[in-house]
């Protein structure tokens, strides 16, 4: 039996080494580098917390200042590669290997570094998939996380931006790892305990509050009539037809437009209470008018959104909140909710091919997936029926014993035929495949695979891929909504007309929608200021969204 | 803005009403009925904690003793229907509607009650799927949970059997619900904080410790040579061929036999370190010899197992343990790990049809699914490659752009051709379909669908369904391993031989396995007592497994 217990002993030794730079559990910002050099060891798996929203930025700066002679060859296992320091450490030799999920702003630099051999890539995951591996083969030895406040026992308040933290801490603390939390302030008593103190080894009082990106704020003022038209089609042609109540929205303007049309256009269609009642969604400011109009029953959130905290606090009837009154978000549970409890995922993408595969990867950027592939997939393990899900299943099923009928998740791509810079959204072949070849990825970075996507919405119409019976029909259905792109112009017009007669391709007029009605006056809010008004002054938009 | 905040106010009123029967948060066992009658309201969604392992049995008894005039028409949303009280409350009118996941011992009674109209069924879920709905449309108003101990502030120690508790509490406490915990004892200070006290409203000191079922203990003495032969085939023909490192096992004797052959048969094949290193698994006693022989790197657990606590405590190098030294299990994370981080699920079933659909439902029992459909499904949202997963993907993919190649999860059914009572495991049509028709289920209770299962192992051989290119090939591959069942005797012998030449059907001799070698002497442990010896006396089997 000797030989057992080494991992626990090694953990105790790290903590002992770290204690030299701490007072109890408390570490000053000035001592961060010394602490990290004391507790980290070469080849450690390290989770430096950061996703598409909050960042443990003080600890990121500290890590990037460590001496590469002492701290090197780390294996980073984390949701986001977002801050410059997240990549600096690879150039410095502090880190060597990377497993991650999301990279917005650093997508181009990651691609260059992968191509240059500066990063040994494990894989690009979805959030939930990476969390899963934290418990199996990518368990962190050290977690560097962020919270709002902590007491001297380490009890941690993560507040509205709880996000990934409980998951990261659980995987690390219960497998003999070391957990370091940066907090904005040390307090005598935290407003609520998001993480019990016996899972936190060190608390760093950061030099400034942790950074949060307002990623889910879409300014209604920037919404176009094309986006409004697409939103009308989605509401009438998909939400109403399938009776979609439980859903998740991506972050584009198309879905934000849907949110703003619920209390206006959808209300006139008599859909209140029939659609869009239960959400797995961040607190989108554009959902405020629907909430205030009584459309929304419940919202569970991955994270929070800058400026929404006071509003959420006063809307605990809708949001999940804690004993302190503020939001409790949880990315792992919300991703699980998006996977198994929602009937619809609708999001945007940059490229769609002729089979329906889509990707947000372009020739020079590895953006990462975030949550889209998880929520934009049909979970075969689902066993509860809903009318929405069964209707989609009936449309998809062509043969077989009807007693074995099952449902399908609705996975919708909503895109303008020409995206930003007039780049066509429809392509013969995804750039992702070329990029994968160039930088040596074993698996091409496809966001949603063709066999999961059920509908494509563009300004030209809706393609229902569930009803397609052959690859040829599928291709023509896609071409049939691809507008004036080269893909769209390459359509077989007669076949597209036949698909239209079968309801596989539907134009605005087929849905009883007059494109000229797609007017900005339909938006429940036409500006950020309108959203503030709707909220009764509770929504406090960040400065960059204010022009008053 | 008036009108908002009602949910929080209603919660506060319930707690106020409950306080009349409590001293602070503490409630005596004698006051449970009064407490429940005070806090529950008609039509409440209630989670009465209980899964396939631990049970909040004191609270279940209390609920069943409530006055149906005061507490009625509850909507039960819970993992397990296991105790008689779980169904008594439906007969009494205390509960009306049911959403659940698992029902071992009560499967026959549920079927009768559904048929008699005594239960309004929502759906039969997998665990993870029901957890997902806790955050969307099945959020509990009241959660009745079980822990080992609590302090007077409500800080809860759930210990080795943490299981579903953190998930249930998170969904309830953060959505203005009321949480009542039964504990074995009230203490001054809990050994570790599994749930912070600010999420727990009432603590009931139970009249006896909560019940735990030793569901994952398989006595090696009961293992047959047929099971050993199947285990040898699985190891050599699947584990070795695909290099499976990350995996989950079901609870049958077939998979327990695999565990016991790792340090013997698999070791002789030179597979140590090559297979079965990282697990999402309960602490199966039959895994002890493999752990002690250095085969296992890490195990994350759904729950604990009776008698394994001391052993786990001394093996924190392998298991997830807390600051107090004992196991930290977590069903939600382990199910997520099984879904997204494992390359293989292998389990048993009662019936397999000619397409490969399987079910544990028989004509008179609705057993529920537990976790099998979740782990026994190919997650389309997975984006990280492994050699195992990519090899399976290559075998399955027949057409299409090779640049779009992706992997497949291995989902294996291991069954004897004739099960208990010599009932054939292979059937023309699943009994589940008949039962669904009889009791009016919208969705037939299929455990694993044909499009997810990749291999079937019987004593006659292995059928590799990934390599089948037509429905006909698939049917003959299944018939080809179905032995002397009617399905097996109905095979096209010439075609099965052709499938054998293509490696789709493999006999023991094709794998270089001599059936006569399948001897009990291959088992690393041949009795429960042997397991105790392997554990150095740390494993303490429950009385029913002791014969010394």
Automatic annotation (TrEMBL), chains A, B:
GO molecular function annotation: transferase activity
Q: What protein is this chain from?
A: Malonate decarboxylase, alpha subunit
Which superkingdom does the taxonomy of this entry point to?
Bacteria
Q: Name one Pfam family in it.
A: Mal_decarbox_Al
Q: Which PANTHER family match?
A: ACETATE COA-TRANSFERASE YDIF, MALONATE DECARBOXYLASE ALPHA SUBUNIT
InterPro entries reported in the protein's UniProt record: MadA (IPR005777), NagB/RpiA_transferase-like (IPR037171)
């Amino acid at each position: 039996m000797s030989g057992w217990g080494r991992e626990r002993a090694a953990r105790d030794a790290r903590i002992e080494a770290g204690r030299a730079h701490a007072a109890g559990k408390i570490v000053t910002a000035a001592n961060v580098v010394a602490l990290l050099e004391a507790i980290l060891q070469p080849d450690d798996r390290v989770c430096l917390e950061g996703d598409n929203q909050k960042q443990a930025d003080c600890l990121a700066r500290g890590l990037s200042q460590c001496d590469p002679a002492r701290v090197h060859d780390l294996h980073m296992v984390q949701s986001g590669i977002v801050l410059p320091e997240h990549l600096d450490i690879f150039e410095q030799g502090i880190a060597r290997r990377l497993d991650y999920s999301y990279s917005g702003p650093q997508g181009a630099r990651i691609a260059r570094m992968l191509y240059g051999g500066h990063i040994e890539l494990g894989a690009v995951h979805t959030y939930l998939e990476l969390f899963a591996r934290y418990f199996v083969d990518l368990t962190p030895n050290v977690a560097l996380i962020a919270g709002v406040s902590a007491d001297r026992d380490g009890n941690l308040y993560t507040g509205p931006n709880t996000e990934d933290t409980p998951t990261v801490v659980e995987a690390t603390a219960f497998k003999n790892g070391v957990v370091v939390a940066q907090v904005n302030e040390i307090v005598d008593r935290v407003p609520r305990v998001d993480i019990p103190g016996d899972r936190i080894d060190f608390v760093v009082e950061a030099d400034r509050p942790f950074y949060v990106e307002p990623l889910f704020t879409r300014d209604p003022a920037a919404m176009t009539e094309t986006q409004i038209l697409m939103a009308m089609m989605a509401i009438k042609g998909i939400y109403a037809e399938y009776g979609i109540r439980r859903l998740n929205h991506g972050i584009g303007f198309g879905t934000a437009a849907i949110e703003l049309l619920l209390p206006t256009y959808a209300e006139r269609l008599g859909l209140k209470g029939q659609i869009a009642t239960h959400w797995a969604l961040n607190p989108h400011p554009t959902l405020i008018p629907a909430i205030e109009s009584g459309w929304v029953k419940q919202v569970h959130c991955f994270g929070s959104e800058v400026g929404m905290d006071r509003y959420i606090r006063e809307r605990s009837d809708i949001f999940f909140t804690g004993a302190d009154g503020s939001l409790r978000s949880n990315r792992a549970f919300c991703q699980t909710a998006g996977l198994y409890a929602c009937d619809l995922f609708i999001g945007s993408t940059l490229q769609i091919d002729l089979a329906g595969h889509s990707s947000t990867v372009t020739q020079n950027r590895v953006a990462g997936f975030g949550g889209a592939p998880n929520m934009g997939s049909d979970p075969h393990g689902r066993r509860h029926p809903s009318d929405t899900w069964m209707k989609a299943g009936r449309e998809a099923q062509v043969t077989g014993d009807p007693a074995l009928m099952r449902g399908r998740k609705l996975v919708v791509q909503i895109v303008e035929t020409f995206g930003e810079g007039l780049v066509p959204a429809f392509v013969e072949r995804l750039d992702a495949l070329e990029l994968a070849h160039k930088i040596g990825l074993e698996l091409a970075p496809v966001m949603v695979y063709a066999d999961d996507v059920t509908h494509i919405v563009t300004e030209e119409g809706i393609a229902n891929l569930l009803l397609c019976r052959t690859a040829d029909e599928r291709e023509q259905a896609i071409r049939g909504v691809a507008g004036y792109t080269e893909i769209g112009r390459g359509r077989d017009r007669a076949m597209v007309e036949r698909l239209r007669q079968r309801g596989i391709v539907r134009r605005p007029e087929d849905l009883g929608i007059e494109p000229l009605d797609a007017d900005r006056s339909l938006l429940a809010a036409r500006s950020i200021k309108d959203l503030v008004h709707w909220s009764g002054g509770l929504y406090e938009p960040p400065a960059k969204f204010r022009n008053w």
